[in-house]
């Protein structure tokens, strides 16, 4: 936790709770925007921006997927932090930060703002030209990658104007029910908060299963959109992590045939498999000491679709 630019408290998964003991996610603090013409102050330029991610993190993985699908790998550099959370949060481990030689991710936050407060989260989109943090909000970063890089980007439009209302409606349900829902189950500090989060997670999975069971390819039919990215990053972690460490164990994802098939379809898209590292996902979630004091990482489950993933 950063207070006035200094790391002051050991890392804890939950630092804010609601009245019922439910986990409250911090609001992102850096919300600048990259545009093709630079009118926002951040011009799209090849080699200017760098993305910091953790392969364990679903929010960071959204941005990794968008970077792949929009053909931006040669335009935006990328560094992954170590999967294991330490007392000082994310560390660069053996692969020191290539831009500044930082040891901890929080050092980038205080470099960008000497008086910064709050948690040092991934993803981080860094601007090498001005030496600052452009954004630490994955939803914004995905949209910037989709439309902020002009001709430098390629691939499908992940947020087409004609589908925007439908995508927004899906996002509004998938975020609380699934993406953040699993965290609210896992990080609940009271039974009632856990029970509520658990019920919502499975209600949301049941709804998605019935939607995909009509044979559609993607959530909105033939168009692959950011709503698919948001859904996939949670589904791909479900059996390996959330079913166990977050106690989301009414059913496994593999008990949902349409969702399991959908997961494998997304995974087969060019480049997507490279954004998924099951070993990091397991090592990372099972390193959260308040949930797993001895740090033992389970050997199972056997996930046939994940055998070739890192
Ligand atoms: N709103 C952020 C959330 C990012 C987030 O919570 N990332 C987690 C990893 S999954 C993190 O870095 N947590 C470290 C912490 O909370 O101290 C986004 O979507 O970009």
From TrEMBL:
Record-linked Pfam families: GST_C_2, GST_N_2
Alphabetized GO MF terms: glutathione transferase activity
A cellular-component GO term for this protein: cytoplasm
PROSITE patterns: GST_CTER
Binding site for glutathione: 90, 119-122, 137-138
Domain GST C-terminal: from-to ranges: 160-285
Catalytic site positions: 57 (nucleophile), 183 (proton donor/acceptor)
Chain positions of site Lowers pKa of active site Cys: 242, 285
PANTHER family to which the protein is assigned, alphabetical: GLUTATHIONE S-TRANSFERASE OMEGA-LIKE 1-RELATED (PTHR32419:SF6), GLUTATHIONYL-HYDROQUINONE REDUCTASE (PTHR32419)
Name recorded for this polypeptide: Glutathione S-transferase family protein
Organism per entry: Fuscibacter oryzae
């Amino acid at each position: 936790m950063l207070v006035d630019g200094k790391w002051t408290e050991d890392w804890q998964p939950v630092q804010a709770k609601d009245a019922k003991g439910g986990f409250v996610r911090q609001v992102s603090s850096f919300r600048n925007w990259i545009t093709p013409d630079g009118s926002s102050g951040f011009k799209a330029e090849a080699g200017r921006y760098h993305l910091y991610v953790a392969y364990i993190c679903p929010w960071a993985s959204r941005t990794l997927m968008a970077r792949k699908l929009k053909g931006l790998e040669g335009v935006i550099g990328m560094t992954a932090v170590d999967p294991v959370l330490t007392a000082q949060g994310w560390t660069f481990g053996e692969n020191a930060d290539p831009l500044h030689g930082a040891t901890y991710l929080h050092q980038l936050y205080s470099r960008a703002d000497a008086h910064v407060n709050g948690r040092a989260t991934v993803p981080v989109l860094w601007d090498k030209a001005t030496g600052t943090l452009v954004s630490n909000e994955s939803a914004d970063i995905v949209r910037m990658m989709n439309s902020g890089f002009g001709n430098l980007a390629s691939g499908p439009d992940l947020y087409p104007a004609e589908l925007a209302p439908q995508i927004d409606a899906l996002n509004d349900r998938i975020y609380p029910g699934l993406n953040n829902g699993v965290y609210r189950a896992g990080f609940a500090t009271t039974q009632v908060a856990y029970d509520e989060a658990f019920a919502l997670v499975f209600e949301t999975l049941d709804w998605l299963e019935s939607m995909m069971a009509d044979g559609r390819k993607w959530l909105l039919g033939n168009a692959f959109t950011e709503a698919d990215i948001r859904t996939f990053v949670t589904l791909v972690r479900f059996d390996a992590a959330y079913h166990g460490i977050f106690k989301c164990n009414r059913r496994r994802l593999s008990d949902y045939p349409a969702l399991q098939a959908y997961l494998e379809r997304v995974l087969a898209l060019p480049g997507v498999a490279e954004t998924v590292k099951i070993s990091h996902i397991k090592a990372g979630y099972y390193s959260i000491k308040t949930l797993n004091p001895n740090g033992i990482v389970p050997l199972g489950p056997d996930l046939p679709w994940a055998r070739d993933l890192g």
